[in-house]
Amino acid sequence: MTADRPSRPATAPTGNDYLLANAQPEAGERFDALSALFDASTFRHLDEIGVAEGDHCWEVGAGGTSVVRRLAERVGPGGRVLATDIDTSRVQAAAGGPVEVMRHDVGADAPPEGVFDLVHARLVLVHVAQRQQALAALVQALRPGGVLLVEDADPALQPLICPDEHGPAQQLANRLRRGFRTLLAERGADLAYGRTLPRALREAGLVDVVADAYFPLTSPAATALEDATVRQIRERLVARGLATDAEIDTHLHHLATEPMDLATAPMVSAWGRRPATIG
Question: Which of 81, 85, 94, 247 is deepest in the core (most CB within 10 A)?
C-alpha cells in the first residue's frame, strides 16, 4: 500500500501519475503477494478484536478480496461488509451476500451511511495526503464501542529490501528500493507514518489503544511482491533517472535466479475503541 498496499490509495495522484494503480496487470500479482505476506497477521488481529456474527464492518481501500471475504465469513448473512476503494475493479468479485462494494475516496468523501462495529484500513492512510482528516472520518463511522484497526507500513523505520546487504545483487536491490521510496514520497506518502499510529488513534479520541508490528525477513511472497512492484513502476524509475533499464533487468534476473532474502517494511497494526462519546 503498501509498504505497499493492495489497493489504490485514497486521494492519490490520478491518471498517469498514479504509481500503483489497480488497473495495471501487475496489481493482481501484488495483491496475491501482499495477502500471502500479511493476511495471517491481519486475521489474527481481527480474531483478537472479535468480529462477530451480525456485525457491520467497513473495509477501507479494500483493493483485493481476501480480507473482505474473511470478514464476510465472520459476520454471516445477518451482517454487513462494506468494501470501498477509489478503484473497485478488483474487489467486485467479492460482492454479494453481506458484501457491498462502493467507490469511495476516504481522503475526500464523507463517511458512508450507517455506523460500524469495525472499521479496518490496511496500507491506505500512509498514502493519503489528508490522512488526519481521513482518520477522523474512520472514527466518526464507528458506533460507540466500535473498533478501528489501522495497519500501515513504516519504510523509514526499516528502509532496506535486503537488510543483509552482503553482495552486489543486494546492493542493487537496495538502490532500486531507495528509488521506489523516492517515488512514493514525491506522491505524498508519509514513509514514517506507521510508528505514529498509536498516538494518532489516541489523538483521534479512541481508547484502549494497542499496537504491534510484523516484519517478514524472507519468503517467496516477498520475492513475488518485489518482482511485480519493480515491473509496475519500471517506467517511472527510468523516467525519473532513479534506475536504468539494464539495472532493472539485472535485478529481475537476480530475483528469478538467486536467493535474495527480501524483507518488507515493518507493518504496524494499531487498534482502539470508540468510547460512548468522542471529545
Answer: 81
What CATH number corresponds to the domain at position 97? 3.40.50.150
Q: What's the mean pLDDT in 175-202?
A: 95
Number of domains present in the structure of the chain:
1
At 150-168, the pLDDT tens digits run: 999 999 999 999 999 999 9
Three-state SS for the chain is CCCCCCCCCCCCCCHHHCCCCCCCHHHHHHHHHHHHHHHHHHHHHHHHHCCCCCCEEEEECCCCCHHHHHHHHHHCCCCEEEEEECCCCCCHHHCECCEEEEECCCCCCCCCCCCEEEEEEECCHHHCCCHHHHHHHHHHCEEEEEEEEEEEECCCCCCCCCCCCCCHHHHHHHHHHHHHHHHHHHCCCCCCCHHHHHHHHHHCCCEEEEEEEECCCCCHHHHHHHHHHHHHHHHHHHHCCCCCHHHHHHHHHHHHHCCCCCCCCCEEEEEEECCCCCC
Classify residue 9: in a domain, yes or no.
Answer: no
The domain of 241 spans 15-273
Mean pLDDT for the stretch of residues 45-55: 96
Whether residue 97 is contained in a domain is answered as yes
